[in-house]
Amino acid sequence: MLRYSLKRLLSLLISLAVASVVIFLVIEVAPGDPAAIMLGINAQPDTLASLRAELGLDVPKWERYLNWVGGMVQGDFGTSYTYRTPVADMIAARMQVSLPLALYALTLSTLIAFPAGIYAAARRGRGGDMAVMGATQLGVAVPNFWFAMMLVLLFAINLRWFGAGGFPGWDKGLWAGLHALTLPAIALALPQAAILARVMRSALIDILGEDFMRTARAKGLTRRQALWRHGVRNALIPVLTIIGLQFSFLLAGSIIIEQVFYLPGLGRLVFQAISARDLIVVESVVMLLVFAVITVNFLVDIAYALVDPRLRSRT
Amino acid sequence: MTLLSVENLSLAIHKTPILHGVSLTVDAGEIVAVTGESGSGKSMTALSVIGLLPDRMEAKGAIRLDGQDMLALPERNLCALRGNAVGMVFQEPMTALNPVRTIGDQVAETILVHKAMPPEQARARAREVLDRVGLPEERFPLTRYPHELSGGQRQRVVIAMAIALRPKLLIADEPTTALDVTTQAQILELLKGLVAEFGMGLLMITHDLAVVADLADRIVVMRHGEVVETGATRQVLAHMRHPYTRALFAASAHRVILPPAPPPEPLLRVENVVRDYRLPRTKLFAPPGHFRAVKGVSFTLNRGERLGLVGESGCGKSTLTRAILGLEPIQGGTITLDGDPVLSGNTPRREVRRKMQVVFQDPFGSFNPRHRVDRLITEPFHLLDTPPTGSERTRAIDKALTDVGLSPADAGKFIHEFSGGQRQRIAIARALITRPQLILFDEAVSALDVSVRAQILDLLADLCKAYVLTYLFISHDLSVVRTITDRVLVMKSGEIVEQGETEAVFSSPQHPYTQSLIDAAPVLPDREALLAELPA
Amino acid sequence: MNRNLILGALLSALFLAAALVSFVWTPFDHTVMDIPAKLQRPDGVHWLGTDQYGRDIFSMIMVGARTSIAVALVAVGIGMALGVPLGLTAAALRGSFLDELIMRGNDLVFAFPSLVIAILITAVFGAGAVNAIIAIGIFNIPVFARITRGAALSLWEREFIMAARVAGKSAARISAEHILPNVTNLLIVQGTIQFSLGILAEAGLSYVGLGAQPPTPSWGRMLADAQTLVAIAPHLALIPGLAIILTVLGLNLMGDGLRDHLDPRLRVSRA
């Protein structure tokens, strides 16, 4: 198990290194000198030079890359070209919205999808299954940001149960924060729950056909007992893969959903940075998102080993 | 005392009949074997006794266990009986256990689901039955997972699960078909012992008449969903009233006569061949380990000779076969055909390769389902410098198909239009079409029913008469190798432990491993002796 | 033929037809503003009403279908054209360094969701529909590579492939002659699924301004424009949303239907 984890960890580090090089190189291709953009066209050559030194732009590319990566490891993401404040602080503030939103949505999606998928698999081919499959077929087709707009229309504008947008900040209390994130989280979670429920159902149905399920029935387990005791844990293996993939969709989705609810998250930050050509902010946010995706996949790999003893004993 | 009585059982799915009017009985302490070829309905009979038929299957008749009609019972009561009064063992031990739960949990579950004992006691009982089936605590603690066990060991776990609550009836559906002969002998011995010890009834499903003859008190022969003959095993085998029983027995004992082999002249030389597989690293930075599947094997196959290669699964015979075909690199030694090495470096040489062909085991997986027979069997033409075209090609196809007992009209059909035996004929046609000097038969008759197997063996013998055929026949089935080869190699753990004239090796094996193989293989009884003992 | 396939194909064909017809005919010119006629509800003249500039929504939906379908289709094309050969190569050289490299590369690309790729491209080169195509297309590559490799790997173990190897055929030739035709059904089904995901992704990217730019109409942009007006003119948000849902639903139904129709055992068993 330890060996397996170390191996996955090594592969995590390699992925992160390669991803950072790719991101750095893409940003490097961008035309224009950030210092010149910040100072405008009338800048004095010496001010330009000193700003370039201040931003660390006056050293060779590979050294700039190492400085960037070295800084990130220590929590220093550089200074924003437009706001002249540390990027790390800006990201930290925005993460307080985006990360809880993605996790909230992931939790909701799992809580909805597991029972729905298990229920449908247990009643395979019957009315309940048809209903769940129909609902998920529709859920998969709904764009989350459009669904978000409909939720706003119904629950914020017509029923007035929720505010139409904005975020009060966590200092107003946990409840106020969660309340503000509830509609966005539902909008994010439902389409993902539809996918997850379908995966859960089909994984379970595959497993219902396995020989060991018949063995379990021959011991005297009822269909339901066999499904719960022998089916669900085996079905978790493919389901975990999808949960890992979904986290990246949820992060990306939360960036879009933030636009619907005017939430001050990473999405707002990155779109402002794009229009202001504040490339260092874009670079850092992208790296952070990629870091999150890679890390979650690492955690999924570890979770596999917890579910599946065959992986644990292998290297 | 009658424990189980199946009375006039009929099954149908979507109006397609599966079983008609099947009747049989099992007494306490008795072993009853149901035998027949695929499609005979023997497995369905077993599944209906434990009430695990596929959905939408309609059953008529009665299945009485201790006088209680199982067909009339609601599902809830059936659950209470399964695992408790009736246990079942299945064919595929590799997949019969839940991979993510320990063997202890899975055995104890039988006890816990019936609330027969409190948890600690259930675990103690699980330990006890695992000991009983030959999995002692030192090597097989309750915390083991299925993937850590071999096929035979897993089958013991399945048996332990089935007998944990000492059921009155045990059903075993081809319990040893997926196992090697020596393991099969041990499992059969175990089942026999359990029946004697607990006084259980055992309903055993098997296609193998030799196993039946060895084990069963009574025998039920089935064909196309009907019972054709039933009675005490020795009586049935001695008299065989129904023609189908006779045909089945004859096919199981089928022997062919090969024409004499020409004087020895080496064709294939295998010298000191070594095949290593890299193992996954066990330590992060340590060099990867190796598994030596073939350990310096040498032998010669003469032109016109029919050579057998026998051994149990994992002995390296398939690896060796693939190495001879040039499908796998070798790490040491040489393989030459007709004086030319098969490989140059690690790439097989075309001019050598065109001299050999292969017939595989699986009649369903051996053909691209999207191509027609003519295209399938002419694939080896790819090896020729000037493959025949036009009418010459058509003639070659017609000849190859007629040679294997099919008709030229079959060339335009797709593979799914043929039965398993016909497909194996097509595979032989594909191997013959380039008139190769050597053919490898890799378990080529192992997947076939006995009657079809007998026909294919006849075909091979006929082909040997028509052409000078040189082949290497790889099989785990000793009785087949005994009749279809002149000489035999016995392989164990990557080495050839014995070789010699087939008859000599089988009648007086020298190596202890060969002896154990031959001892373990179930044999059909001698009918003459039976008849003398039990006159009509 | 099954019900899913027919219903799905009809829905998909409806939107494809709308996109094609829009090249030669739309009820109104979708670019012409008519401020006095703004924010009209659906009626006999403007079948689906008008937007805040008085443009005909029905016409915009028709032209928007063009953008959505073009972007998603080209993105699937990119994914297949690069992913399938990669997957076939990896499977043919299974266990080799190149296989490992392709698979690791796939994992890496998977770490960049389409939106992240679009953000990067837009930040560096500026916004446009081409960004959306590239971003979605890149994400499709590992999807097709993985599914092709997985299916091909199990085929390489089959005896008919062994027979072809014994017949001296090269790995490349076996891949083309035996492997590819036997994974085609799987690729068609996955293609429809990626097509529908592409339509969703394109809408999302356009919505946040990373996709098609005005005046090119797209369903995502229409939704972005409708956002501030959702309280007074909900039909502005409802109609493009329904267009997206019906198209995606149609494609998904078609994918499910094709899977059942082409081969009930298509879902390659987990090894």
From TrEMBL, chain A:
It comes from the Bacteria. It is found in: Cell membrane. Residues 95-300 form the ABC transmembrane type-1 domain. It is a multi-pass membrane protein. Its main location: membrane. The chain crosses the membrane at residues 101-122, 143-162, 174-197, 235-257, 285-307. Keywords: Cell membrane, Membrane, Transmembrane, Transmembrane helix, Transport. Belongs to the binding-protein-dependent transport system permease family. This is ABC transporter permease. It comes from Arenibacterium halophilum.
UniProtKB/TrEMBL annotation, chain B:
It comes from the Bacteria. Residues 4-249, 268-518 form the ABC transporter domain. Coiled coil: none annotated. Keywords: ATP-binding, Nucleotide-binding, Transport. The keyword Isomerase does not apply. It is found in: Cell inner membrane. SUPFAM superfamilies: P-loop containing nucleoside triphosphate hydrolases. Its main location: membrane. It is a peripheral membrane protein. GO terms for molecular function: ATP binding. Belongs to the ABC transporter superfamily. PANTHER family: D,D-DIPEPTIDE TRANSPORT ATP-BINDING PROTEIN DDPF-RELATED (PTHR43776:SF7), TRANSPORT ATP-BINDING PROTEIN (PTHR43776). This is ABC transporter ATP-binding protein.
Automatic annotation (TrEMBL), chain C:
The chain crosses the membrane at residues 69-93, 105-126, 229-254. The keyword Membrane applies. SUPFAM superfamilies: MetI-like (SSF161098). Residues 65-255 form the ABC transmembrane type-1 domain. It comes from the Bacteria. Belongs to the binding-protein-dependent transport system permease family. PANTHER family: OLIGOPEPTIDE TRANSPORT SYSTEM PERMEASE PROTEIN APPC (PTHR43386), PEPTIDE ABC TRANSPORTER PERMEASE PROTEIN (PTHR43386:SF25). This is ABC transporter permease. It comes from Arenibacterium halophilum.
